[in-house]
TrEMBL record:
Species of provenance: Desulfomicrobium baculatum (strain DSM 4028 / VKM B-1378 / X)
InterPro entries per the UniProt record, alphabetical: Thioredoxin-like_sf, Thioredoxin_domain
Keyword check for Repressor: no
Domain Thioredoxin: 25-180
Recorded superkingdom: Bacteria
Protein name: Redoxin domain protein
Signal peptide: 1-22
UniProt keyword list: Signal
Coiled coil: none
Length: 180
């Protein structure tokens, strides 16, 4: 065997033996088990009904749908999306939809201090959970940001989207349909 073929064979065997990277949860998938820290701010804890807890799972949230926005605290696309999601958050908190959707952000790589600074900008009205060591982000398959997941409390994913969502009205209508 020539040296080139031997090296190529070794590289093939090395990469073939590596476990496949998990893909981010997509529509039709089931969410992986997540144990998340509660938001550090009391307002965020109250919005999610998590007062007095230190961690939570999706099943702990008292809602029919769970809306998770995976963000980067320095992500320009996340900043671009935030005004539309502020509007969406306000719309979900009114009328027949009030209390039926738990909405929070997951700050991939974000420390409590960075999340505190981010919340102080007013960009996010909904709670944001810190993930400083990318633990939850890794469990979720390390999606690029922004990445939106809507699931049920049992973990069944009913919506996913990578990137900025341009049509917030269409997303709102889709959420209403999912709740019917």
């Amino acid at each position: 065997m020539t040296g080139f073929i031997r090296i190529a064979l070794c590289l093939f065997l090395f990469f073939a033996a590596q476990p496949a990277l998990a893909a981010p949860p997509a529509t039709g998938d089931t969410m992986p088990e997540l144990i998340l820290p509660v938001p550090f701010d009391p307002a965020g804890q109250e919005m999610l009904g998590l007062q007095g807890k230190s961690t939570f799972t999706l099943a702990d949230l008292d809602a029919e749908l769970i809306f998770i926005e995976i963000i980067g605290v320095y992500c320009p696309q996340c900043v671009k999306q935030s005004p539309g999601f502020k509007t969406l958050f306000n719309r979900l908190g009114k009328g027949k939809l009030k209390g039926r959707v738990a909405m929070f952000g997951l700050a991939a790589g974000g420390t409590d201090a960075e999340v505190k600074q981010l919340l102080a900008t007013g960009q996010y009205l909904f709670p944001v959970v810190s993930d400083p060591d990318y633990v939850a982000h890794k469990v979720l398959g390390e999606p690029l940001t922004p990445y939106t997941i809507i699931c049920r409390p049992d973990g069944s994913v009913v919506y996913d989207h990578l990137g900025v969502i341009q049509d917030i009205d269409a997303l709102y209508q889709q959420i209403k349909t999912l709740l019917d």
